[in-house]
């Protein structure tokens, strides 16, 4: 999926993308995709510059994507994650969230 966004040309993935202000985005939501959650994710999505999630995925899945692709992640908690979000009014690390009893239900 291609999305137009304000991008610093020095950080863009290619000269063509820098010239047009386009970035390549991997958008995930609701279901764990077997083509994404696989050992070949880095090769399959090597051109991705940003990962966006619309929620309702286990936080361990986000951890896998960020660790594998080494790209920034923008996500929102989905309605299945809201109970956990309401109980944590402060910022938590991915390790703290991943190891919580709430997220273990998703693994």
Q: What key phrases describe this protein's structure?
A:
107 residues, four-stranded mixed beta sheet, 16% strand
Set out the fold topology.
Elements: E1 2-4, H1 15-20, E2 22-28, H2 41-44, E3 50-53, H3 59-69, E4 73-75, H4 82-87, H5 94-98, H6 101-104
Parallel strand pairs: 2-3, 3-4
Antiparallel strand pairs: 1-2
What does this structure look like?
By secondary structure, the chain is of the alpha/beta class. 34% of the residues lie in helices and 16% in strands. The chain has one domain (2-104). A four-stranded mixed sheet has the order 1-2-3-4. It starts with a strand and ends with a helix.
Q: Could you describe the largest sheet, including whether it forms a barrel?
A: 4 strands, mixed
Q: Helix proportion of residues, in percent?
A: 25-40%
Report the span from N to C terminus. Answer: 27 Å
- How many domains is the backbone divided into? 1
The low-confidence parts are 1-12, 102-107
Strand content: 15-25%
Strand arrangement across the biggest beta sheet: 1-2-3-4
Rg value:
15 Å
Average the pLDDT over all residues and give the rounded result.
74
- N-to-C SSE series? EHEHEHEHHH
| Shape field | globular
Number of helices: 6
Q: Could you say which structural class the secondary elements and strand pairing correspond to? A: alpha/beta
Overall number of strands: 4
Entry summary:
With 107 residues, this protein is α/β, with parallel strands linked by helices.
């Amino acid at each position: 999926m291609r999305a137009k966004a304000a991008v610093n040309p020095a950080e863009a993935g290619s000269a063509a993308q820098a010239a047009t202000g386009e970035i390549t985005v991997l958008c995930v939501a609701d279901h764990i995709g077997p083509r994404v959650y696989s050992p070949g994710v880095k090769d399959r999505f090597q051109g991705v510059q940003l990962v966006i999630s619309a929620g309702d995925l286990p936080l361990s899945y986000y951890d896998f994507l960020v660790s594998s692709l080494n790209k920034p992640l923008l996500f929102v908690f989905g309605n299945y994650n809201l109970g956990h979000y309401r109980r944590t009014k402060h910022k938590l690390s991915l390790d703290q969230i991943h190891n919580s009893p709430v997220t273990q239900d998703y693994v």
